[in-house]
Amino acid sequence: MLLLARPSERIRTASEIPTGVELTNDVAIPISMSISDKVLRLRRLDMTYTNIAERLGINPWMAKKAARWGNTQKG
Predict the structure, then answer these.
(1) Number of domain units in the chain
(2) N or C: more exposed end of the chain, with fewer CB within 10 A?
(3) Is residue 19 part of a domain?
(4) Is 24 a domain residue?
């Protein structure tokens, strides 16, 4: 009687198991990133950072930070 060897199933490590993860969470996005488009739009209308901050309910430092981040994203 002839026994044929069957190929064994390959053992997969945890890194090879396909998984799906949602990486975006609206709560986890910093405020400066989420308002950067609004700040840049208001800056194009020649508003000062102080006026932008009052309008959006933030401080002027946050408005400047949002503008810097938005400008770096534009490339």
Answers:
(1) 1
(2) N
(3) no
(4) no
Write out pLDDT tens, residues 16-75.
Answer: 777 777 767 667 788 899 999 999 999 999 999 999 999 999 999 999 999 999 999 876
Give domain status of residue 51, yes or no: yes
User: In this predicted model, what pLDDT tens digit does every residue of 53-70 receive, in sequence order?
Assistant: 999 999 999 999 999 999
Query: Nearest Cα to 29, choosing from 57, 71, 61, 66?
Result: 66
Residues near 62 by beta carbon (within 8 Å), at least 6 away in sequence: 31, 32, 35, 53
* Residues 35 and 65: beta-carbon distance below 8 Å: no
